[in-house]
Amino acid sequence: MTLLFKDTLKTLPPKPESGEFHMAKVTVGPMPYMSVMPTVLVGANVKGMPNYMTAAWATVACLAPPMVCVALNKERYTVKGIEENRTFSLNVPSAGQVVETDHCGLVSGTKTDKSGVFHSSYGKLKTAPLADECPVNIECRLFTAVDCGSHRLYIGEIVEIHADTACLTDGKPDIAKIKPIVYAQAAYFGVGKEIEKAFSAGKKYRK
Amino acid sequence: MTLLFKDTLKTLPPKPESGEFHMAKVTVGPMPYMSVMPTVLVGANVKGMPNYMTAAWATVACLAPPMVCVALNKERYTVKGIEENRTFSLNVPSAGQVVETDHCGLVSGTKTDKSGVFHSSYGKLKTAPLADECPVNIECRLFTAVDCGSHRLYIGEIVEIHADTACLTDGKPDIAKIKPIVYAQAAYFGVGKEIEKAFSAGKKYRK
Q1: For an engineered disulfide with B53, which of A179, B11, B78, B190 has Cβ 3.0 to 4.6 Å away?
Q2: How many CB atoms lie within 10 A of CB A174?
Q3: Which residues 101-140 of A are in CB contact (within 8 Å) with B?
Q4: Nearest CA in chain A to B64
Q5: Cβ–Cβ gap A164/B199 under 8 Å
Q6: pLDDT digits (tens, 9 = 90+) for B21-32
Q7: What is the pTM of this model?
């Protein structure tokens, strides 16, 4: 046994209590990895004009009060708007808007005016532009920002959610109608088939 | 026009510059919403025993150094382990592990010993249990935690990523092989078909 194979061998040979368990793990190094992520457009007013940038490093940050967070490279044009106004939006594009969505990730607001890619509205906050064509808009007031290194994690309290009436089921946004874009390994994917209900499938568990 | 319909009417009638644009938006209220999320198992040692809890409020927090974040209810058993050891893991289960995964979200470590749901290994950190059966394990050292209200957002620096050799393509974790679980509206979904490549589809954009 040499040190070279230490990591591969870590979970080998199969543990005595499980004759069927043979997964061989290797270390692939630290990297900014998450299995799957949402695709959103971060909206901010920069110099008084709406700007949208594509982001995937976003999730829910709190239940009560409801909050979301999004990690943005500190050099991004969008960051200027969030820091100036202390407001931003996360807009959920539909699969049919993948070209516009990717465009907003390819070009920077420093060089290209992206205010015409979507129509913009304003909700309760008057400085967080909402992309009208996106089926869901999450309107946020900046709660705090955490400097992590290359990126700053912006945590925003959700002030309001605006949704296309055609995308609601029982008053809530429905992915079957929204057709949100899943982001993984530098590509956009649809949502696949439902596997199981949460808080339910686990009842079948037997040790 | 009454105040009652103010929000519905906000984006109506269609703006003059776009005769085709007729989306009707309504406000659905602030709620902890994100279109789609990853399904992960947060691993932590609590009282010296590995414990795994299901979470979906997770994403990448930084590129350099690589970091992830996960929002956890402050009352969770897992939280005790993260705060004691200042280490945790995010484990990516495969679609075939949905029952075990949901089980870890249904029962609390305060009442049920979950150390036997998966085999556990330890990597570079000696207190962040890695669920051997999960195809990808993200080993994290706590960078900081942000108190948001009901939830605390744990931001961890990725120390190492361990992956099943059978789930790699060109040395990187591949969703086609991992079959990760997408979480949305209290259900688990597979990843759907690839729609477009990122940093590419946007080149087709014409104003």
Answers
A1: B78
A2: 17
A3: 101-107, 116-117, 119, 121, 123, 132-133, 135-138
A4: A150
A5: no
A6: 667 999 999 999
A7: 0.91
